[in-house]
Amino acid sequence: MSHRAVLLILALVVSTVVSASAPSPAASEAAFRDLYRELVETNTTRSVGSCTKAAEAMRSRLLAAGLPAADAQILAPADRPTDGALLAVLRGRDRAAQPILLLAHIDVVEARREDWKRDPFKLVEEDGWFYARGASDDKAMAAVFTDTLVRLRQEGFTPRRDLKLALTCGEETPNIFNSVKWLIETQPDALRAAFALNEGAGGELNGDGKPVTLQIQAGEKVYQDFLLEASDVGGHSSRPTHNNPIVRLSAALARLGAHNFTVALNPATRGYFEAQAKLVAPEVAVDMRAVLHDPTNAAAVERLWAVNPGWNGSLRTTCVVTQINGGHAPNALPQRVTANVNCRILPGVPVVDVQREIATVIADERVSVAPAGELGMQSPPPPLSEAIMAPVRRVAADIWPGVAIVPTMSTGATDGRFLNASGVPTYGLSGMFHDAEGSHAHGLDERIRVRSLLDGRRFLYEVVRSYSNGAD
What we know:
19 strands
């Protein structure tokens, strides 16, 4: 028997064994639904929940699929036993190749039963939707990523490069604790990768429920609060002076409220508006192309802002007043008044430059401007290279023929800000589509369309598998 014939027989034997061990598509979907339900119904709120419990449940799923125990660990600081993160790895065959990181947070925002129509910690499937706290943000991706490793392991698939899974805690309350930040600071190798996939982008459905645009997020704005303060000696309210801190700060805030920061496009936002210009109403497309041609076209920017405030947030740094506190008695002149100004800063713009611009705009030396909390983390937007985009285009065309792929820049904040700043390019990519009403994330009756979750499962599985065998 020839050497080639022996290899062929061995390949057929391996294929038969793998096929026998891998569940049928129907059984695989049922197993995923069960995994997803367990994760969603494990309370991971800051007040009474436990990320560690959820991480242990997902670890058990991986071990049952055959992943070695040494390759699935729960990590948490000694003084935070309920803030555990699951770090797991499916080993690749090329030890020199850099890993791919699959990142999802498993903590969720608080939810009160008396406010919800349904129990927020019981997964409900109703009229084609799943409802529960975390059903979308971010346990949908956490469940899909865990399920992807389970399926690949069951299939006997060995990627070229390691596939790392990180289910982390504290994304919703980073001022208290954040797994990603802690791991980067204490165990930097744990999250080191060629690039990471994360939350931050989904897809848009039209009014008929048809997928129209698939988003891929490259970069996010920097979150930074500033504290503005005016003060005086105060006194009896019957003896007013010309230096009332509330009046002074109010005038300063009015000037800031009327100020617009300079429009600046980066590759992600330019790509976003180029793609959107092909999809929106003709008169809106004219304004988008005008801004792409000339970002100083204030009239076009203003019209786009009126149509969608999110577009304005994508085009420039924004700073808005979110809280005011001042005065100590109704019959006394105020001694101190403060205001919190929340800024979402374009990537590459130093925080100190925004602080200076605020001080210049308010034009009052008696109103101080200081950063509040930790300084926001700066990082350049990761490149949307062909190696990143090609698998996305190929898989999307197979699942959703004709869908437009739209790059985006997040105007919010995700754990990607820590990874990007540490040198790990991080992309938001889920393949999970929402209608105009959205997912209700952080709000009442959070939801995700059942079909969107299952399509996202298929999409991410195929994209991850493709990436895992790709070249560096």
